[in-house]
From TrEMBL:
One of its GO terms (molecular function) is glucose-1-phosphate adenylyltransferase activity. Residues 16-285 form the Nucleotidyl transferase domain. InterPro entries: ADP-Glc_PPase, ADP_Glu_pyroP_CS, GlgC_bac, GlmU/GlgC-like_hexapep, NTP_transferase_dom, Nucleotide-diphossugar_trans, Trimer_LpxA-like_sf. Its EC number is 2.7.7.27. HAMAP family: GlgC. Residues 308-411 form the Glucose-1-phosphate adenylyltransferase/Bifunctional protein GlmU-like C-terminal hexapeptide domain. It comes from Piscinibacter sakaiensis (Ideonella sakaiensis). One of its GO terms (biological process) is glycogen biosynthetic process. Pfam families: Hexapep_GlmU (PF24894), NTP_transferase (PF00483). The keyword Transport does not apply. This is Glucose-1-phosphate adenylyltransferase. Homotetramer. It catalyses: alpha-D-glucose 1-phosphate + ATP + H(+) = ADP-alpha-D-glucose + diphosphate.
Length: 421
C-alpha cells in the first residue's frame, strides 16, 4: 500500500497533464451545464478529483488541466479546491482553457492537440516525464508504479491498460502484446479482440493513460501537428504511430491499482452513461462497497464546502427522519422522510412523509412533502414538488422525464418546470 502524499524521485520529475475538455454527451442533461469531469460523484467529489488525487497521492506535484466544453463549473471547482500547490515548493497547478493560443480559429482539435497547444507551458517546468490522463474515470492508481515500468522498459510510450474479458473488449482500443507486454499492434474496437499471451480469456483495453519521456512527447506532438490528415488524438493517431514505429509497452492496471483491505477487486469505472453513473453511486451504499472512499492512506482530495452536520428530525409514526444503507452529506436535512439505499450530496433537504429509494440526489436539491422517488438521479438544485411520484409508472416517467434503458429516471429543473400546474 502506498502511503499518503509520499514523494518519489520519478514522480517529482513528472508532470501530470489531465484532459478534461470532453462533454460526455451520454450523460444526457447532466452535462448540459457542466463538462463530464465536473459531474458530481460520491457525495462530495467531482469525477476529475480521482485523476487529480491519484497524481497527488503518487507524489506528482506539477499538474495541468486542459478544459474546453462548458468549463465554468469545472474551473470554479479547480480554483476552489486544487490551487493549494505552491510555486515556492516547486509545485504548480495550471488550468489551461482552450484559448486559441496557436491561431485565432483553432480551439483544441483533439486530445493530442490540447497538449501540443500548451507545449511552452509544460516546457517551462522542464519535467523529465509527462503523464497524460483522462479526467473522466473513477479509480485509484499509483502512477509511480507506471513511471517505474516506463523507465525500466526503455519504452517511448507506456500505456495504461485494463485486463477485461476478451469479448467485452469490443468497445475499447485493444493492445495486442507479446510475452513481455510490448505492444505489437493496436486495434480500435475489434470484433475479435486479441488475447493476452497465456490468458486466452482476457484482453488489454486502453485506459487513456500514457507516460512519455517529455522529449519524445514533444517530438511526436510536433510531427502530428504538421500532419494535415491527422485528427490530433492520442488514441487514434499518436499511439498507433508509436506502436508501429517505436517501442510501446502496456502497463497493467492490476499492477498499480490502489486497494485498501476492504476492496476485493481492482476498481475502475467509466461512469459515462446515466445508468453507469447511477449504479456506481448506489454501489457506495453497500455494507462493503467496491470502492473504499474511507481509505485514509489514499484520500480523494476535493473542495469541501463549510457545512453544518447532516440533521434528521421528527420522531412520529409515519413521520420519522431516517436513513438506511445511505450516504448523507453535510448540510442535509432529512425532515420526517425516509431514505433507503440512497446518496445525498451536500445541502439536500427531504421533507415530511417523503420516501426516497435508490436515489442519487445532487447538491441543494429539495424533495417536497409526500414525494416518492425511486431509482432516480436528481440534478443539482432541483425543486421536487410536494406529492410528486417518480419511479413507479414507467410510461408516465418516460413522458415527463428522461428514463433510461435501465429504468433510471434523470430529473432536471427544466423537466419539473414543464409539468402541468
Amino acid at each position: 500500500m502506498a502511503s499518503k502524499l509520499r514523494s518519489s524521485v520519478l514522480a517529482r520529475d513528472a508532470m501530470a497533464f489531465v484532459l478534461a475538455g470532453g462533454r460526455g454527451s451520454r450523460l444526457l442533461e447532466l452535462t448540459d451545464r457542466r463538462v463530464k469531469p465536473a459531474v458530481f460523484f460520491g457525495g462530495k467529489s467531482r469525477i476529475i478529483d480521482f485523476a487529480l488525487s491519484n497524481a497527488l497521492n503518487s507524489g506528482i506535484r506539477r499538474i495541468g488541466v486542459a478544459t474546453q466544453y462548458k468549463a465554468h463549473s469545472l474551473i470554479r471547482h479547480l480554483t476552489h479546491g486544487w490551487t493549494f500547490l505552491r510555486a515556492e515548493r516547486n509545485e504548480s497547478f495550471d488550468i489551461l482553457p482552450a484559448s486559441q493560443r496557436i491561431s485565432e480559429d483553432a480551439w483544441y482539435r483533439g486530445t493530442a492537440d490540447a497538449v501540443f497547444q500548451n507545449i511552452d507551458i509544460v516546457e517551462s517546468y522542464a519535467p523529465r516525464y509527462v503523464v497524460v490522463l483522462a479526467g473522466d474515470h473513477v479509480y485509484k492508481m499509483d502512477y509511480e508504479q507506471m513511471l517505474q515500468q516506463h523507465v525500466d522498459s526503455g519504452a517511448q510510450v507506456t500505456i495504461g491498460c485494463l485486463e477485461v474479458p476478451r469479448m467485452e473488449a469490443t468497445g475499447f482500443g485493444v493492445m495486442h502484446v507479446d510475452a513481455d507486454d510490448t505492444i505489437v499492434s493496436f486495434v480500435e474496437k475489434p470484433a475479435d479482440p486479441p488475447a493476452i499471451p497465456g490468458q486466452p480469456d482476457l484482453a488489454l483495453a486502453s485506459m487513456g493513460i500514457y507516460v512519455f519521456d517529455t522529449a519524445v512527447l514533444f517530438e511526436q506532438l510536433r510531427r502530428d501537428a504538421a500532419d494535415p490528415a491527422s485528427s490530433h488524438d492520442f488514441g487514434k493517431d499518436l499511439v498507433p504511430w508509436l506502436v508501429k514505429n517505436a517501442k510501446a509497452v502496456a502497463h497493467r492496471f492490476s499492477a498499480s491499482c490502489v486497494r485498501s483491505k476492504e476492496e476485493s477487486e481492482a476498481y475502475w469505472r467509466d461512469v459515462g452513461t446515466v445508468d453507469a453513473y447511477w449504479r456506481a453511486n448506489i454501489d457506495l451504499t453497500e455494507v462493503v462497497p467496491p470502492l473504499d472512499l474511507y481509505d485514509r492512506n489514499w484520500p480523494i482530495w476535493t473542495y469541501s464546502e463549510l457545512t453544518p452536520p447532516a440533521k434528521f428530525v421528527h420522531d412520529e409514526d409515519g413521520r420519522r427522519g431516517s436513513a438506511v444503507a445511505s450516504l448523507v452529506s453535510g448540510g442535509c436535512i432529512v425532515s420526517g422522510g425516509t431514505l433507503w439505499r440512497s446518496l445525498l450530496f451536500t445541502g439536500v433537504s427531504t421533507h415530511s412523509f417523503s420516501q426516497v429509494k435508490e436515489a442519487v440526489i445532487l447538491p441543494y436539491a429539495n424533495v417536497g412533502r409526500g414525494a416518492r422517488l425511486s431509482r432516480v438521479v436528481i440534478d443539482r438544485g432541483v425543486q421536487i414538488p410536494p406529492g410528486l411520484v417518480v419511479g413507479e409508472d414507467p410510461e408516465a416517467d418516460a413522458r415527463r422525464f428522461r428514463r433510461t434503458e435501465g429504468g433510471v429516471c434523470l430529473v432536471t429543473q427544466a423537466m419539473i418546470d414543464r409539468l402541468p400546474a
